[in-house]
Amino acid sequence: MIDMFKNFLLAFTCVMGINACSSTHTELQANAWQQVSAKGKLHQRHEASFVEYKGKFYSLGGRGIKPVDIFDPKSSTWQQASKPPFDIHHFQAVVYQDAIIIIGAMQGRYPKETAIKNIIYYYPEQDRWELKEEIPVDRRRGGAGVVIYQDKLYLVAGIRNGHVGGFVPWLDEFDLKTRQWKILPDAPRSRDHFQAGVVNGKIFAIGGRTTSQATKEVFSLVVNEIDQYDIHSQTWTTLSAKLAIGRAGTSTLAVNDEIWLLGGESNRPSPAHNEVDVLNVTTLKLTSFQPMVEGRHGTGAILYDNAVWTCCGAGTRGGKLELKTIEKIELK
């Protein structure tokens, strides 16, 4: 009876032209976020990444040199692997073939972190780290968005001088087969402390800020605009949709024909944002989604077994409250 009433209300709002009818297909068929209990040791971390490889979840990097934590969603258990060769933070890790790739990352302490010069590979099955090619000196930066599409890696925007300044609108392509680097057209605007997403040959730059410790504007200069890059036509477009609540340190995830933006931090000290926004890449409509149980920033999100998962990150602006909780939302 309750479900029938909900369906009636949805139909009524769509007929009346109320915004609810613009909700995405996934949104209308999702449960609520729930925290997941887990066994084993987990290292709390932020400015890190959270990715899936062959059914296991990898939490890696972040400030300080910490072992890789591996989560088995079937047994809900954590186990540890090796440490990286040095501190690696402020990056969006991506999975390609048998490796987790890190590019566009930082190392060092706030506020004068430096961009890491190499592309870094972590091989989960061998528990092995390897430094690969050097990034061209004049294109190095951290806090950038990273996606892979058809054997090519795309490095989007970022910041050259830690938190001091030097944010850029750059877009670069690295061919993972030929190992060749290519400079592509700049985005319409700079942004850093964000993650990118790709669906159907289009890259979406959403969230982030232009960090400027030099002018004492570390958290406030958030970017509300959403920029889209068409890989095939090599052109940028700024969407009419904008974020209602701008924030950086967000997690970005492609879910079917949607781009999800989770959490983040802004100029408010506490708590971190728990808001979730969903962009339908077909209609280019942006809708608010069910908020997470906890606000968090500086981590990642995973689509696995018909659910969206996230963990770790920081629960307040900056990194004083590092989280060790896991939560997920199941898609019906």
Automatic annotation (TrEMBL):
UniProt keyword Repeat, yes or no: yes
InterPro entries registered for this protein in UniProt: Beta-prop_ATRN-MKLN-like, Kelch-typ_b-propeller, Kelch_1
Name of the featured protein: Galactose oxidase
Family matches, as SMART domains: Kelch
Coiled coil (UniProt feature): none
Classification via SUPFAM superfamilies: Kelch motif
Source species, domain of life: Bacteria
Repeat as UniProt keyword: yes
Domain Attractin/MKLN-like beta-propeller: 27-264
Entry keywords, A to Z: Kelch repeat, Repeat
Signal sequence extent: none
Gene source species: Catenovulum maritimum
